[in-house]
């Protein structure tokens, strides 16, 4: 496929750059190559249980150094959304500590008790307890509306498939009978716009979305006019991709193959 | 209301006999009075995270001594159901340890790993961890069908409203996209039949169901031809009861009031 019109990369993280705490083969090299060639990119992840700071540190440990504004997480986009549309309204975060860290870094007020929250923000909670489940439950029972950072069902973990945010959402929704007011994550327009804003000046048609998820990554590109490249290092097999209703523009073994292919075309253009 | 035709009591536990670790006012006295007058009764609870042994010990600490066959829990009925319909099929229990204890006491085989389970049995899990959530998730991802001991949404705890089995069910169902094959708890026919079997020889119309829940307790009685008495010591207010589509035959302040009223009529008959 021709990549001559592409000026910027929107790159998924889990299953594309790393799995768990380990960088995927070639990923570090690929990102460094983009940096060497001064090609604009942004990491765009449905992770809502990290703050950008935590994500920056995680990438740094793997040998990838990027500024925080090159990272857009669903927690980041949730914070922007609350800032813009519900200024000053107190939230109760239900998820790992990175969510609260990201909300606080955007000056979103955190409720003292769940009963006084206007919003319950749900994300992945890998250190979930029954007590915390009850606090989230009481927020909604007392009138808080539900925002989910994303609605992904699962992700591949080191010991096997792991339950993602959908599990936390299901627990609260099924027990309260309330539904989710807003879902922030990919493939939403909010995620697409925030990623483009981080690639200042680039238009959707000048960007390629790279990721391992048909629904989140390829879906995002298809819905918002970007080129799409599926990598086979995560959730999706080539067979699943070929059976999908919206074919990705490219299927690559990994991120490195895509970047090498792009750089090659760039060099050929001279 | 005339209680002359009543020969046996089917008595709910949470919100009727006790709340948390404490007996409700008058409840111990009421149960003792039934025993003194030799009136058959059975405790019938949607709790699936206890075994009968644990429940017997809990009641004993409160001063109520009953044999195990006078206790029917949703974990008990789940074990009977599996014994009868799916003999020898391995299960993965997802809930507090009482569920596994009750299943084992009925010789239900417990799978070594979630991947080899034919059934995932879900009940309340007050010591839930993310790891256990993932094990349950993997059971269903690998083909296990879902049985829930019950589908209650909440119960009143000592620190406020607590999320009940519906939370655990929602987590698994929403993350896997699978639905629940069987729900065991009240107001099911299985619970009604097991309770009647424990009151050997009594017919439905000779029994009164006493409890604090309109859906579970009053619902059970209405659906299966028993008299119904709502107590106001738990989940339901008098106003809620009066607005309910299926009015209970009696509304009592507590279990003691009902038993006193019954014994009074018994004494009048001489």
TrEMBL record, chains A, B:
Q: Name one GO cellular component term.
A: cytoplasm
Q: Which GO terms describe its molecular function?
A: phosphatase activity
Q: What is this protein called?
A: Sugar-phosphatase AraL
What is the organism of origin for this protein?
Paenibacillus montaniterrae
């Amino acid at each position: 496929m021709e990549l001559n019109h592409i000026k910027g990369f929107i790159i998924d993280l889990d299953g594309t750059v790393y799995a768990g705490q380990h960088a995927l083969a070639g990923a570090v090299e690929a990102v460094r190559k983009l940096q060497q060639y001064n090609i604009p990119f942004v990491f765009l992840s449905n992770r809502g249980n990290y703050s950008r700071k935590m994500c920056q540190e995680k990438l740094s440990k793997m040998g990838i150094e990027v500024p925080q504004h090159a990272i857009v997480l669903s927690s980041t986009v949730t914070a922007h959304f609350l800032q813009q549309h519900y200024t000053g309204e107190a939230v109760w975060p239900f998820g790992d500590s990175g969510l609260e860290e990201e909300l606080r870094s955007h000056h979103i007020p955190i409720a003292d008790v769940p009963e006084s929250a206007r919003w319950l923000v749900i994300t992945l909670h890998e250190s979930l307890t029954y007590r915390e489940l009850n606090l989230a439950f009481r927020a909604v029972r007392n009138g808080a509306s539900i925002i989910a950072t994303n609605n992904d069902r699962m992700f591949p973990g080191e010991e096997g498939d792991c339950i993602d945010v959908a599990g936390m959402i299901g627990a609260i929704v099924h027990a309260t009978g309330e539904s989710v007011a807003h879902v922030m994550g990919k493939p939403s327009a909010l995620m697409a716009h925030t990623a483009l804003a981080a690639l200042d000046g680039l238009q959707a048609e000048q960007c390629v979305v790279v990721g391992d998820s048909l629904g989140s990554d390829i879906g995002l590109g298809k819905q918002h006019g970007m080129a799409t490249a599926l990598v086979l290092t995560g959730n999706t097999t080539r067979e699943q991709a070929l059976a999908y209703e919206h074919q990705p523009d490219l299927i690559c073994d990994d991120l490195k193959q895509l970047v090498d292919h792009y750089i090659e075309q760039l060099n050929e253009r001279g």
